[in-house]
Amino acid sequence: MIAELRGVTKKYGEVVALANLTLGLEPGCVTDVLGPNGAGKTSAIRLLLGLTRPTSGNVLLFGSDPRSPEARRRRRDGCSPRRHATLATSTRRMSSIP
Predict the structure, then answer these.
(1) From CA 10, how far away is CA 17, in angstroms rounded?
(2) What is the pLDDT along the chain (98 residues), one digit of tens a residue?
(3) What is the residue range of 44's domain?
(4) Could you give the number of structural domains in the chain?
(5) CA angle 68–33–84, rounded 5-degree value
(6) What is the pTM of this model?
């Protein structure tokens, strides 16, 4: 695994953004994070990038805490947010591929 969330919970005051999320990202795979507003997508990505701390659970990026100096030196992450992408647009593109 290149990145992992293990039993991660993230709270903002009384609001629970993520509850006991476990997720692993394999090398060589492209991953889309889809869901409705408020589902915790941005919170999960911010945790993986080391921009925030989990309330509980563990976050690993290349085997280390993404906030550690070692992980920051070895950082090879990329994030490509698509603010206006919709499933209908994606489906249309995919269906036009021969």
Answers:
(1) 6
(2) 889 999 999 999 999 999 999 999 998 888 888 889 989 999 999 998 888 999 999 999 888 898 887 766 665 555 555 554 545 544 444 444 44
(3) 3-95
(4) 1
(5) 115
(6) 0.71
